[in-house]
Amino acid sequence: MSESSALEAAGSFAELNLSPEIQRALDEMGYQTPTPIQKQAIPLVLAGRDLMAQAQTGTGKTAAFALPLLQKMQPFANTSTSPARHPVRALVLAPTRELAIQVYESIVTYGKHMPLRSTVVYGGVGLDTQTPQLRAGVEVLVATPGRLLDHAGSRTLSLAQVEYLVLDEADRMLDMGFLPDLKRILSLLPQNRQTLLFSATFDDNITRLAQSFLRDPLKVEVARRNTAAETVEQVVHKAREEDKVDALVRVVNAREISQAIVFTRTKLTADRLGRQLLRRSLDAAVIHGDKAQSERLLALDRFKRGETRLLVATDIAARGIDIAELPCVVNYELPYSPEDYVHRIGRTGRAGAEGLAVSLVAPDEERLLAAIEKFIHRSLPFVPLPDIAPSAAPAWTAPVAVPELAPATQRGRRREPVCALLMPPVQAKEAPRPE
Ligand code: AMP
Fold this sequence. Notes:
binds adenosine monophosphate, single chain, alpha/beta, 2 domains, 14% strand, 19 helices, Rossmann fold, disordered N terminus, seven-stranded parallel beta sheet
């Protein structure tokens, strides 16, 4: 396996020689320069190489594989209506429905000026709803592994003509126990294909997977596995379990956080927290693996449109969610795995934007904090909770929730300089006094 670091990276999309159709889509999206993973990966994929790419969500990894694959498929794109003329040529596997949908949407956007058909299949909805599109023929298929096998088993699709395979977030697929499914899928694919493996982390298991799935792959890497974006401010508050809801409400109001994903470890805590926040007039929605697919999509859509202030989520449900300019992530409970901490806070501070990651740490979580600090090679000292007068909460100025929340006079009184909120309580209180 050779390293690609010596490769000259392209400085602009023009240097990548993408087709006018793709370039037009990029122009419409306002993409001006390729991200580091795109600079490295696109020329290699165009050259037909297998790839092991280490890149987290938020680095632009979807376009890193989608753009060159669309480009390579283009000369053969056809407008025939015959299903036989539209076999699956590119298969993208993703661990969760949310990520699958997101990747699919990106592919549709990047390929909007090309006559390629694509679709996405995932579990949690009836097989029948997805069958007609598959039967009609699609060239690009995005799928979660289990649902793909369901369809393959019921002969709604054939994978015999797949030329390109992408394993997206391969580490998470292994974490979620998809290895047997991946092996079965592999046995349905032609040997002669190009395979791209994307993973936020590379451990022995991923390397073994790559050895059995890939052919003489090149390795590209854009961020070390244990680095968080430099632009994310990481704040840690002490909060006993029973005080966490209060602490969360206080942080959100005091720092005037317009939107945040709030992570819990369990579905149970997520549901309970969602109810508690609503009772405190904080507009919150909950997503986790037990929610119906339609509920999850609705909650996500509303959150993306800015209609919900807080999205309470478990790690798996939130995996891969890409929300442009998400200002804040809250660790209501620290994750058991330090890598999940990096994934969580990677939802904010994307593409160079500033982000805030707040962790509420109970005494029995301090050992988890220590493990995180070791993992990210950085100490995260406790800072006092922002101090606000009880009369000032709650208030939020988003259009949907405000009228029921607090009288305008209360909202007006609450505003404090954000910098004061970072100081210890005494200073924060003293700062506004006239004398
Ligand atoms: P991803 O890592 O694929 O989830 O992408 C993260 C975000 O970056 C998505 O919202 C993309 O639309 C956006 N993005 C990807 N590539 C570029 C680029 N070259 N310029 C600007 N934004 C980009």
